[in-house]
Write a structure and sequence with these properties.
Layout lengths: L1 H15 L30 H13 L25 H9 L2 E3 L17 E3 L13 H7 L11 H4 L3 H10 L16 E2 L7 E2 L20 H16 L3 H29 L6
Antiparallel strand pairs: 1-2, 3-4
Helix pairs in contact: 2-7, 6-7
Length: 267
Amino acid sequence: MRFALVAGLVFGLAAASPALAANGDPLPLKTPPQGWSFEGPFGTFNRADLQHGFQVYKEVCSACHSLNRVAFHTLSESGGPGFTDAQMKAIAASYHVLAGPNDKGDTVDDKGNPLTRAGTPADTFPPPFPNEQAARTANGGALPPDLSLIVKARNGGPNYVYSILTGFHETLPKGFTVTPNKYFNPYFIGWNISMPPPLSDGQVTFVDGSPNKIADEAFAVVTFLSWASEPHLEDRHRIGVGVMIFLIVLSGLLYLSYRKVWKDEAH
C-alpha cells in the first residue's frame, strides 16, 4: 500500500512537470493538427485563405520578417493566391526596392539614403531592414527569420507555425518564470520566445468580411506561408496523381498482355 502511494505520488509529479531538454529547458508542447486543405496527395490551397494570409503578412508580419525568396509575379501564377495580373502589378508597385546606380553612378541620395524604385513583377519582397545589425537593433538583439521557407524549415511544419502564433495566450504553468524581455509560448523550446504576440482579435480586417479572430488570422497566414514554402505544391500533387493512374493502367495492360501471350503455355 505504501509503495503504491509513493509510486502514485512520483507519477503525479512527473505528469505535472514539463519534459526537459538536455540543457534543462522545457521541451515544446506537441502541436495539434489543424486539418490543412493542402495536405495529402489530393490537397489544394484555399484561395481565400491565401489572399487573407497575404493580407496578414503584409499588414503584420512584414514589419519584422522578410520574404526574400518570393517574387511578386508568383502572386498571380497558377497554384498561387489567385490575384489578377493587374492586382499583382499594383502590389509590386506598392513596395520600394533598392535601385541600381543612377545616371551619375550614385546609389544613395543627397541625404545618404539608398536609392529606391517601385517594385516590378520580377522583384522579390524587399526586407524590412537594410541589414542584420539593423534587424537585431530593432528587435532587442533577436533576428527575425525570413519566412520564405519557414514552414518547411520547422519540425511540425504548418502546425508548428500555427501553434507559435496562437500559443501566447496559453496559461502560464505555476512555478515557471518568464525571462525578462521574453514572452511565454509553450510551443517554443524553452517556452521563452523573443517575438511578442503578433496577432490580436480584429487586428486585420479582411476585405471580404471574413472572421478575424486570432485563430482565423493565424490559419490564413500559415496557409500563405505554406504556399510560399512550396508554390508548386498543387502541380506536384496533380502530376503525382496522374503518374499513379498511369502506372496502375500500365500494370493492368502488362498483366493482360502476359495472360494473353502465355495463355497456352503450361505453368
